Amino acid sequence: MTWWAIDVRTAPEKREWLSAWLVARTGQAVEERQDGTLVTFARDEGAADELIAELEAGGASVETARRALDQVDWSTRWRDGLGPRRFGRLTVVPSWSAQAAEPGPTTVVLDPETAFGSGEHGSTRAALTLLERLLAPGNRVLDLGSGSGILALAAIKLGATRATGIENDPEANLVAVRNAEHNGVRRQAEFLEGDAGDLAPLLGPVDLLVSNILRTVNLRLLPAIAAALRPGGIAIFSGMEQSEAAEFRTPLSSAGFRIVEETADAGWWAVAATRP
Length: 276
What we know:
The protein is of the alpha/beta class and 276 residues long. 34% of the residues lie in helices and 30% in strands. The protein folds into two domains: 4-78, 2-Layer Sandwich (Alpha-Beta Plaits); 82-274, Vaccinia Virus protein VP39 (Rossmann fold, 3-Layer(aba) Sandwich), CATH 3.40.50. The chain has helices at residues 15-26, 45-57, 74-77, 122-134, 150-157, 170-182, 196-203, 215-228, 245-254; strands at residues 4-9, 31-32, 38-42, 63-68, 85-87, 90-94, 107-110, 140-144, 162-167, 189-193, 206-212, 229-241, 258-265, 268-274. Strands 10-9-8-11-12-14-13 form a seven-stranded mixed β-sheet, with helices on both faces. The protein has a four-stranded antiparallel β-sheet with strand order 2-3-1-4.
């Protein structure tokens, strides 16, 4: 059987949404190249053509190309480029690596499966960087758009007493629960299915909240996030490119937040802010 690669190009603000859609649609990991091209895989030429047809019919303004690949198992080959990542005290390792056999107390063992969040995407790395710096032991944490559970699990490993993820993809929640079990923190981690705008205010007050979602969604969720945070709590916003920073700072300030720290990783921007 010959696997096919499909190269997809779209506007920068649509890449994360499209990447998540491709993962859900194909069950395969998505590679994001330096030039912004998203690469996914299909089991044969017919499946590649079907996926391209869906993309072009969806009105997402995409450019696509397909190419046949060598005879290798591309359903697992994508793992080859994933290795341990360090974020200060925190280490994230894939479940198939040798280091996963004897993880340390601040090590997250992760298998992203079909859910977004492996620690390899710049937006996730930027969020992990701020989480490691700003989380205090004993914090209660809320993770919006929790995907594979990586940020919630990292919070627990860093000393949070409890972390709750909200995700509208039930398959991603199953992945997150399995990752919590693999890390021995199932009692401290909870993953709920639903809309973050509806659920977040009901789950507060929390000490720290992280929202690694698109800028437009982060903007829509600002009132819910403000309602979920305790006074003086910290919200970490990620999922935005550096070029979008100026468009987010002003509404963030207008919503009563004060920026305390910013960081960037491979062109992706994250910001931490607090409210009195």
